[in-house]
User: Fold this.
Amino acid sequence: DETEFRNLIVWLEDQKIRHYKIEERGNLRNVHSNEWPKHFEKYLADVNCPFKAQERQENVDWLLGLAVRLEYSDNVDKYKNCTAESVRNDAAKGTDPLINLDVNNPDFKAGVMALANLLQIQRHDDYLLMLKAIRILVQERLSPEAIAKANRSKEGLSVSLEKHLLGFDTGDATLNEAARVLRLLHIEELRDLQTKINEAIVAVQSIIADPKTDHRLGKVGR
Assistant:
């Protein structure tokens, strides 16, 4: 997308490269101008980019590399001891919003307890553990996809009772048909119960430790 490309260039110049003074960036910031390509070409020349303005991918890669070099030179002490492992750990922390929560905050505890009561989740002394259980329940049962799936299941399917053997005969055709219906309803209840049991197992496994399993030894543990 042309507009996104231009906005990326402006962001790199404004936030990282900063080759121009602030008052000199007006032409580059005017991303909707028909003159923007001309100003972009001049910008590439000013920062000594070796690629032509038409080589978009190469320009982006080169400008990103320049931005990284300048960012590092401005914050050497911050990045000099940075390792790939520490970057991965920081990225993992950033993807889980629960990590940075203040679990001792009274408002946090009150909110978790209110949600647990509303969703009928078992109380626990570890409020963070309760919140994780709430998150799992919401993801599994209250997400738009789960609700849509539940609504589809409520529509039901047509069933031919004649295809289902009752296993016994009451001597009355009407009673036999009613018995078939009751039997099918009972099977559906058992399936629903099994689904809930499976969901509970998954939820428990998601919030407790997951030990390594050595199938060759037939045991769980390190």
Residues 173-207 form the longest helix (35 residues). The CA atoms of residues 3 and 152 lie 40 Å apart. The radius of gyration is 31 Å.
